[in-house]
Amino acid sequence: MEAVVTSAEMQACDRYAIDTLKIPGLILMENAGRGVVEMMEKHFGSMAGKTVIIVCGKGNNGGDGYVVARHLFNRGARIVVVLIGKASELKGDAKVNFESIRKIASKFKTDGILQIKELKSKQSLKRLSKADFIVDAIFGTGFSGEVREPYKSVIGWINKTGGKKVSIDIPSGVNADNGEVGNVAVKADLTVTMALRKIGLITGDGKCYAGKVEVVGISMPSETLKKPQTFIVGADDVRRVLPRRPINAHKHSVGKIFVLAGSTGFTGAAAMTASTAMKVGAGAVILGTPKSVYPILAKKLTEVMVEPLLDTDEGTLSIAAYDKIIKHLKWADLMICGPGISRNPETCQLVWRLISEYDKKILIDADGLNNLSEKISILKNHRSREIIITPHTGELSRLTGLSSTEIEKNRVTIARQVAKWSQGMDRTDAAYSGVYLHGRAGDLAKNKFGEKSLLAMDVQDFLPKSILEIEDGILL
Predict the structure, then answer these.
(1) Are 398 and 367 in contact (CB under 8 A)?
(2) Do 468 and 281 form a contact (C-beta atoms < 8 A)?
(3) How far apart are CA 97 and CA 92, in angstroms?
């Protein structure tokens, strides 16, 4: 798995590398700048003869930009370095690299091929020549909040002017911890991030502003990251844990699932859940659903056994169905609870009792979670040691009492906090493998049908292909 980090975690890595391992900051900055140029060449070809404007802030992100300027100059590019602020305000490694390019510009009489300009007003932006590339070296990973002037106007100009945009570490204006954009941010075509991918590049608005993301090594040992907290799951990770089906397998040896789903007007969720369980390899699936919708689902599903259960006057599951459900749960290895069951009070009572008493594996989704939001203590006091919950933002909002907006702004942090419900449970590879396979199936379906025409059933249809990719080790 690939570790992804917050700004604080990355800063801790930097400090450890410099203070404990005694790797000079100048070496890290040099490797960062050179890595940016190498990624530019990888994606856009030779830089010789290209005009590049490098917009630099006063911190270390600007220092990376000065290294980029030097390497691009050595490759034959025409360089304009724009410093937001005064050169006299620069410090440390950034100042060293700034002085280096300033001496190059003066000693070698570069005839305008390497120019250095201090940004003194918004009007001076308009006087800059057109460029093939604009490199964003303004803020880096330490930024949060809203962008103030003059940076706001500079970022606005970067986004409006022509040329490819390349951001160093993270697009300026994007929060590295959650991907939030306060008011404005650089809309990059390419973001070259240092040593480790930042959470803000893959969540929130950050993923929309980052463009293509490349991670480059800067000679920082991987051991500098102590106890990583967040990871990206890849195909190899899933391949290692996805079970291979033995030759002598039969339907009762490869997973028996009981699905509790559906109600009047919500048969689609029940049908998709039950049939998807079959598509991903379950040997036998029983769908328990209200008897009022049984005829619809029995006609839709041929591979799944459909069990009619006692229902309420509203066509939802009745508490009177409990005894019959228990018989099926004794047979099953796993219960899936929630899709389309409604929030009827009697159905809610049924869900509470089942989750409180069932001692095997449980996956809770949709209305199952909505019902639990009225009695959240059940998620802390139950018999099962393996519960997986799959809330979308609205469901998680009801479970936690946090607003959807707050959750969207801090998805990873809040997910970590919510996961502490799981303390003491056996950790399972099934959760992240399922998420990966579902996401990959969605990508495959999007490639065939496009995003606008994509249906949930299209994603389901591509699950077998997604699994084949993992098993064969070849992305199709």
Answers:
(1) no
(2) no
(3) 9
Instruction: List, run by run, the mean pLDDT of 10-residue segments along the chain (476 residues).
Output: 92 94 96 98 97 96 98 95 93 97 83 86 80 96 94 95 96 96 97 96 95 96 84 88 77 86 96 93 94 96 96 97 96 95 96 93 93 86 83 86 85 77 58 88 92 88 90 68
Question: How is residue 358 written in tokens?
Answer: 């069932």
Q: What is the largest CA-CA distance in the chain?
A: 89
In a shared domain, residues 378 and 398:
yes
Amino acid letter for position 277: A
Chosen domain end from 197, 232, 267: 232
CATH number where 115 lies = 3.40.50.10260
In a domain, 289, yes or no: yes
Q: CA 291 to CA 367: how far, in whole Å? A: 18
Q: DSSP assignment of 352-401, as one string?
A: HHHHHH--SEEEE-THHHHHHTTSGGGGTS-S-S-EEE---HHHHHHHH-
- Can you tell me which residue has the tokens 């292909």? 465
pLDDT, position 424: 42
- CA 452, 458, 460 angle in degrees (round to 5)? 140
Q: Considering its fold, how many domains does the chain have in total?
A: 2
**For the stretch 155-171, what's the b/e string if a residue is b when 16 or more beta carbons lie within 10 angstroms of its beta carbon?**
bebbbeeebbbbbbbbb
The strand pair at 197-198 and 133-137 is best described as unpaired
| CA 63 distance to own-chain centroid | 29
Cα(370)–Cα(238) distance, rounded to whole angstroms? 30
- Contact in structure between 174 and 98 (CB atoms under 8 Å): no
322, 295 Cβ separation under 8 angstroms: no
